[in-house]
Design goal:
The chain contains eight helices and no strands. It is mostly helical and about 160 residues long. The chain has two domains: about 70 residues, Rna Polymerase Sigma Factor, Chain: A, CATH 1.10.1740; about 80 residues, Winged helix-like DNA-binding domain superfamily/Winged helix DNA-binding domain (Arc Repressor Mutant, subunit A, Orthogonal Bundle). Helix 6 packs across helix 8. It is elongated and about 70 Å long. About 5% of the residues have low confidence.
């Protein structure tokens, strides 16, 4: 049996299993079908991957869950899309009074942040380091750096909106 036939058989055997999982997650039949198609299209792009999979059903479930997460990340707005916050943070063409207010606001925000959070934020946003580079000098995994940065950005936005930091 060739690899593509095997993938087709896997698709037929596990379609309803995946659909049941994804309907529970998405509450939408069409999105569920799109995600299933995405999982199997990735498998078709790299058919040799099947030989490395020990527990097929578990792998399919995890792949479907990850594809679901990716789908909603792409659809959800990013943290800094709020134009008002962006215009408040971009001060290059502002008058001196606005610059002073923004600087005071930033100092206030930075005083409330943990030292590690400040380090990660400055390394990423000001110096442009990659997550892997930051992770080496703060002794955290790249995923932990991403998580901390996400939370810091979220706290800054809440602070800019006048909510408690």
């Amino acid at each position: 049996m060739d690899t593509f036939q095997r993938i087709e058989d896997i698709y037929k055997e596990n379609y309803w299993y995946l659909k049941k999982i994804l309907i529970t997650l998405t509450k939408d039949e069409f999105i569920s079908e799109d995600i299933i198609q995405e999982v199997f299209s990735k498998l078709l792009k790299n058919p040799e991957q099947i030989k490395e999979i020990n527990y097929l059903k578990s792998w399919l479930g995890k792949s479907a869950k990850n594809a679901y997460i990716d789908y909603y990340r792409k659809k959800s707005p990013t943290l800094l899309e709020d134009d008002e916050i962006i215009s408040n943070l971009l001060i290059s063409n502002a008058d001196p009074e606005s610059i002073t207010q923004v600087n005071a606001s930033l100092v206030n925000i930075f005083e409330k942040l943990h030292h590690l959070d400040k380090t990660i934020l400055i390394a990423k946003e000001y110096y442009g380091f990659k997550y892997e580079e930051i992770s080496t000098f703060v002794s955290l995994s790249p995923n932990a750096v991403k998580t901390r940065l996400f939370r810091v950005r979220k706290r800054i936005i809440k602070s800019e909106k006048g909510e408690f930091l």
